[in-house]
Amino acid sequence: MKRTATAVWNGTGKDGKGNLTTQSTTLNKTQYSYNSRFEEGPGTNPEELIAAAHAGCFAMKLSFVLQQAGFTAESLEVTSTVELADGAITSSALVLKAKVPGVDKAKFAGYADDAKANCPVSKLLNAKITLDAQLV
Fold first, then answer.
1. First to last CA, the chain
2. What whole-number distance in Å separates Cα of residue 136 and Cα of residue 131?
3. Which fold has domain 46-135?
4. Where are the domains of the chain?
């Protein structure tokens, strides 16, 4: 399986602007700029998209891990906070709030750690990855 996305950038790094389009067109010429990346301007940015990818990938991987262990999650709510420092993505902090009927807390922690280590986006990132997992 391969997926594609296209970025178009016009102008200088600070004053230019660009857009992003994904293969699915969920993002279709979605604007990004210096302001959306380093300040609070309208549009998206690469770090926000990586955070979304990591949260989504981790949630789905955990769902598969739980299913293999005989559990079905009622809900998995994951937030990823990606940090950009000194020109590199240095960390992704995952926060999980999970409702999984019948699962033991200790076993759940192991399942969550497995998903953190083995989701494809975690494997891709060359950054510190932390996890705060809570059964609610």
1. 35
2. 15
3. GMP Synthetase; Chain A, domain 3 (3.30.300)
4. 5-38, 46-135
- Determine the Cα–Cα distance for residues 42 and 99; give it in Å rounded to an integer: 34
71 CB-side CA count, 13 A:
21
Q: Are 95 and 112 in contact (CB under 8 A)?
A: no
pLDDT in tens, 44-86: 999 999 999 999 999 999 999 999 999 999 999 999 999 999 9
d(CA 44, CA 103) in angstroms, rounded, equals 37
Question: Can you tell me the distance from the alpha carbon of 64 to that of 26, in angstroms, rounded to the nearest whole number?
Answer: 24
Is the Cβ–Cβ distance between 80 and 52 less than 8 Å? yes
- 20: its two tokens: 């992003």
Amino acid at 75: S
Measured between alpha carbons, how far is 16 from 35 in angstroms, rounded to an integer?
A: 10
Output the six-digit token pair for 72. 């079905």
| C-alpha span between 84 and 64 (Å, rounded) | 30
